[in-house]
Amino acid sequence: MRVLIVDDDFYCRNMLHEIMKPYAQCDIAVNGEEAVFAFKKGLESGNAYDLVCLDLVMPEMDGQQALREMRSIEKDFKVDEADGVKVIVTTMLDDRKETHDAFFLGGATSYLVKPIEESKLLKELNNLGFSV
């Protein structure tokens, strides 16, 4: 499994990396612009990400915009919607509007509120069909 961890907070990035590294090759981006760049490079190289763990509140480009751009890039690359990258939004925002926007405007796969508990993240990965 190939994972892109996107978070501007060092502690959160590191914690997600520690949880995921036994199960996946992990790359890190510190904002939405870096995430979109890495995501596109993965598709261009034929080594697409299987999962993106995406924070919503970040400088440069927030997670909502990054997610919309990633979905747009998938369309440009003719990736079928059912085969698109799985996106777990990982955020401090426990709010209906943000949740709605992430799922219905951005196409998020799931939504976890920080602090992320290892057991909840691993359960979510299993629910998404990843073997962990």
TrEMBL record:
Gene3D superfamilies: 3.40.50.2300. The modification 4-aspartylphosphate is found at residue 55. Residues 2-129 form the Response regulatory domain. The keyword Phosphoprotein applies. Keywords: Phosphoprotein. Pfam families: Response_reg (PF00072). One of its GO terms (biological process) is phosphorelay signal transduction system. This is Response regulator receiver protein. It comes from Maridesulfovibrio hydrothermalis AM13 = DSM 14728.
